Sequence to fold (564 residues):
Amino acid sequence: MDLDLSPNIQAMFQELILDHYRRPRNKGALPDADRVIPMHNPLCGDEIDLHLKFDGDRVSGVAFTGRGCSISQASASMLTEAVKGKTRAEATALWDRFHAMILGDQEAARDKSLGALRSLSGVSRFPARVRCALLAWDALKQGMKG
Amino acid sequence: MNSLAPRSDFPLLAANPGLHYLDSAATSQKPRSVIDAIVRFYETTNANPHRGAYTLSVQATDAYHNARVRIARFFGVVDPATLIFTRGTTDSINLVAGSYGRSTVRAGDEIVITAMEHHANFVPWQQLALEKKARLRIVELEADGTLELDRFRETLSGRTRIVAFSHVSNALGTVNAVREIAALARAAGAVSVCDGAQSAPHMRVDFPALGVDFYAFSGHKMCGPMGSGGLIGRRDLLEAMPPYQTGGDMIEFVRDSDTTWNVLPHKFEAGTPSAADAVGLAAACDYLDALGMDAVAAHEKTLLRLAYERLAAMDDVTIYGPVPEKRSGALSFTMTDVHPHDLATILDGEGVCIRAGHHCAQPLMRRLGVPATARASFYLYNDEADIEAMVRGMEKARKLFAGAPAPSVGEIAGASAS
Fold:
C-alpha cells in the first residue's frame, strides 16, 4: 500500500507491528499469574498490566492487559511471544538487547537473536515514541527482580 | 484564506516553509520583534533592576517598569502595580493558592473549581483543600463540554471561599461566561480566580470588565517568551495578602527578628526579575495590538469553523467540546482506528504539529472516557493550508490503520471503511 509516507514513518508502522496491534497475542488476564505488574505512561495515558507465571526460574506464562497506541500494544504483544519459556537471566539479557536497540544501538538492531522484535527498531528514530515501545518491557524488568 | 500575520514575521516558520504548526495552545511561535526586543535588552540595557545607583541599572529598571505598564494596558489595567510578573499561569495560580488561599481558607470552607480545569488550576486547589481540611467541589460539565451557570448556583454557598475556573478550556476550547461566574462568586462572598492561559492570546481581555478578582496568564502562549507571564489582581486583595516567596527585592526593612514587605508589585516578586522577558512580552503585546485582538479572534474562529466542518464530515472522527460558536481555537478529537499518539507521529511525518495526550487535564479525560485525544489549535499565523495538510495526514493515517482494533475508544461499526 503506497500512502506516500516518509520512509521513517513506514519503517515504524510496518506490517508486522500493525498485525500485532490488530491481533495482539496473549492479550488477557493470566488467571494463575504469580505477578501482575502495572505500568503506565502518564504522558499519553497508555496503561499495561503484565501478567507473569513462573515455573521455578523459568517464565511459564506471560500475558498482558491494557490499552494504548500501536507501538505500546504491539511491543507488549511481541514481548509475550519472546519471553515465554525463558529463564530470568535470559529474559533480562533480552531486555538489555531490546532496550539498546530502541535507544538506537545499530549493532543491537542487527542482532538476529531479537527475532521479530527487530521490527520495532524504527522506533529509535522517534524519541517521542521510545517510552511507548519500552512500556511493557519496563514492567518485565520489574517482574524479573525476584 | 490567508494567515492574519505573515509567516515571514516568525523566524521559525519562515525557516520551515513546510511546517504546519497547530499546537499554539501549548506554546505560540515568536515574532521577530519579540526576539529582537529580548536581544536588544541584553545588548543595550542589561543590569539588575532596582539595585544599582548607576545609569545602566536605572535604564534596566525603567525598561522593566515600562514593560509592566505596557502589558497592564493590554489587559485594560490602569494601575500597573496590580500586575505581578510571574513565570506564567501555573506560577500565578500557585501564588494565589499559596498566599490568598493559605491565609484565608479554614477547615470546613469550600473551594469550587470545574471539571474542565488544566492541572495548573486543579492541583493547587486540591492540595490547598487537603492541607486546610477544606472541601474541594467540582462543577461538572454539560454533555457538550460547556458549563451551566445553574451548576454554579447549586454548588456555591456561604462556605465557598474561592471559585477558580478557566476562561477558555485548553482541551475543549469552551469559552466560559466569566462575568456571570465571577458575579455568582462575589454574591456568595467568595473570590474568583480566572485561568486566562487560553484566553489572553486569543481574544480581547479587559480585566476590569471581566469582574474577576484574579486573572492569570502566560506570556509564551501569546507570542512572548517562555517563563514570562503574570497575575492581575484587585489591589485591596493583593495588599492584604502575605508574600508568596521571600528574599531580595520584596522587602522593606529586614531586622534580625522580623521583616516588613515592599509595596506592590514588588512584594510578590522576590529575587532578580526576568526583565528581558518582561520586555519581550511587552513587545508581544505591541505585536498583537497592531494586528488587533478582535481580528485575531475572528481569524481563529474562521479557521476553527473550517477545521470543525472538515472533521465533523469524517465518520470515524469524534470531536470533543461544543459547537464552534461556543469555543475558541482549539479542537480536540479522536479517530476510531488511530490512537492519538500514532496520529501525531504520522502527522509529524507530514510536517503537521498537533498535541496528543491528556492535555494536562486528566480529570476531564476521565469524564470524557478517553485516555487521550488529539488536539489541533490555531493562531494568527495559521491558514487554510495548515488544516488541509492535517486532513491529508489524517486520511493517510486512516488508510494505514484500517482494520486495527480500537483498544482505547468505543468501536463504531463500519466507520473505518474509506
Summary: Chain A is about 40% helix and 20% strand. Chain A has a mean pLDDT of 93. Chain A touches chain B at residues 1, 3-6, 8-9, 12-13, 18, 21-22, 24, 43-47, 66-71, 73, 126, 128-129, 132 (CB under 8 Å).
